[in-house]
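thread: overnight batch results

M.L. [08:02]
morning all. the overnight job finished for the chain we discussed friday. pasting input first so we're all looking at the same thing
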Amino acid sequence: MTIPMVNLRPLLEATEPAWRANLARLFERMHFILGEQVQAFEAELAAAFGARFAVGVGTGTAAIELALRAAGLPAAAEVLLPALTSPFTAQAVLAAGCRVCFADVDPEFLLLDPEPHIRKTTRALVPVHLYGQPCDVGAAARRHKLVVVQDACQAHGAPVALFSRAVAYSFYPTKNLPCLGDGGAVLTDSRTVAEKVRLLRDGGRRNDQVSRIRAINSRLDEMQACYLRAFLPKLPEWNADRVRLAALYDDALAGCPGVRPIGRRPGSVCHLYVVRAARRERLRQFLAERGISTGVHYPVPLHLQPAFRNCGGRRASRRGDFPVAERACREILSLPLWPSMPTGFVDEVAGRVREFYSGS
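M.L. [08:03]
and the structure it wrote out:
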């Protein structure tokens, strides 16, 4: 038996009439950049997620960068983010012209724990809704009067309150709401922020050839919008299936020595099913030899990655600075999970995990 980490075929098959109709309309109109499909998707996404505005951009990374740039932060503003997340979160902060500073995560949910790391020079927070779990830093942000841009690239459909001026999403193919390439969006209730992001994504232009501000080229592709419009109505159903499968994993792995699932906050949309595993690399090899794919999200905390070691402090980051994140990076393991995944796959994966620990 071969079990991949993710399988998009069931999603495509379930929505084929809708995306084929959208593609047919696109080729009929022959408007391939910032056309009808993107405009329709932006309106549908904003309505589905309870925001006034949605602006489609080229990637989730660009969504974070442009949301920060639209927030009106001063040059080289100090931005606090978790040491445990995708490196693209930190790359987006740097691309926005800000200074990256890291914070540790809480040991149960592995989400940003900002209070111990907020300094007088901190100007903004980028909470990451890691693995689809809501991370609420609204109280800390209000207490310290900080700008917040939420990284919800793994949390499509989670109850992410708009306590910040902008929320960034990614539509990378493995996300809960995927496209078939790169894509992203910024959601906001602020007309000013939405208009600024629209300028920033398209070279500072307003449907002409005049650049009004220094900007980039990062536009959501019309073809990807065709798929996203077809997938969006299915998102609640797909998220519910993820939650159901995660609960089955919980039951199947209950009491298994050597492995424990990370905690899940209310409202989690279970983008990934993540456990903390003893002898993780040996377990991964054991599962791979039996046709089971796994992932590690993420193996190296950001403060120990070469690109970010000199960020945000008077000295280079070093091992031991953020012990909770560092330990988690040595233990976390993502098991296969996708909507419509057969229940038998959960049993097979969990059974093999139990076999590894009972035989070692």
